[in-house]
Write a structure and sequence with these properties.
The chain has 10 helices and 8 strands. By secondary structure, it is an alpha/beta fold.
Length: about 280
């Protein structure tokens, strides 16, 4: 019996493909599930409100036997729960609610959200922090009522870029339905910035992880890199993740025009399998 699952991130595939087509590609590349992206674009946000699209995904999952296992709700990095702009904040709450409803209809286990009180580049204040906490508590209660897990991703912003900082929120909300879905690349970059040990930072989240994003980074670059092109020590971080009980991994990298992207899908999944096998 396989003791772990590896997910394919939607943005690893060219956008010209439909989600059902991407699911077939992911299955052929040996992945266990698909992580759908709901980013700040209207095209992807509208998926949460489109019942026909959701019905098509239910049919696709049935026909392919390939599940959509989680959602990356990065739209909440633009429409944030702590925003000083009331309309922006209300939009964030509505998006979050519809994301949970989407998860219920399609049987998704996890909705990952970014640790952002305000959009990137905006000023963090005590008020934005409080609003973020208050609105998040309401939304976690809504998720709990529907048995949907909310996973918190540490981001590149200093507000909450490490596991240590993320745990402040986990402890404050104090719900079994709100846990860590941390990012290996962001942990590494934060540790380089502060001169700390990324493995020790990971240990601070013991008993609170539900999944793990494997993303490559390097100083001041947080996306668009393939594995080995940055500074993340994946073998050691996956070994620590395994020790901490993490059994669900998503390879978060993006298609950037490489004509060999299908080979990259297999290469990335094979690398992850090797990191895990050395950890077992």
């Amino acid at each position: 019996m396989k003791q772990y699952r590896i997910g394919m991130y939607e943005k690893a595939v060219p956008e010209v493909y439909s989600v059902p087509e991407m699911m077939l590609i992911g299955k052929a590349a040996g992945y266990d599930f698909f992580e759908i992206s709901i980013d700040r674009t209207d095209k992807r946000i509208n998926r949460l409100y489109d019942r026909q699209f959701q019905e098509e995904l239910l049919v696709a999952m049935h026909e392919t036997s390939f599940p959509i296992g989680s959602m990356c709700l990065s739209a909440l990095g633009t429409y944030t729960l702590g925003n000083n702009d009331v309309k922006n904040e209300e939009r964030a709450i509505d998006i979050f609610k519809h994301a949970i409803d989407f998860a219920v209809r399609l049987g998704l286990r996890i909705v990952q959200i970014p640790a952002c009180d305000v959009p990137k580049g905006s000023n963090h204040t005590g008020e934005t922090d409080r609003s973020f906490f208050q609105n998040l508590r309401v939304m976690v209660d809504y998720a709990a009522a529907h048995s949907v897990l909310i996973g918190l991703e540490n981001m590149e912003d200093r507000y909450m870029d490490s596991v240590q900082k993320s745990m402040r929120l986990i402890k404050e909300i104090n719900s079994p339905y709100f846990q860590l879905y941390s990012d290996a690349g962001n942990i590494t970059s934060a540790s380089k910035l502060y001169g700390t040990d990324p493995i020790k930072d990971m240990e601070l989240g013991k008993d609170h992880y539900i999944a793990f994003h494997l993303k490559e980074t390097r100083p001041n670059k947080y996306g668009g890199l393939f594995y080995g092109d940055g500074h993340v020590d994946f073998p050691n971080m996956v070994r620590e993740a395994w020790k901490l009980g993490i059994r669900r991994y998503v390879l978060e990298y993006w298609y950037t025009g490489n004509p060999n992207w299908k080979s990259d899908l297999i290469k990335a999944r094979t690398m992850c399998e090797e990191w895990i096998q050395k950890s077992v």
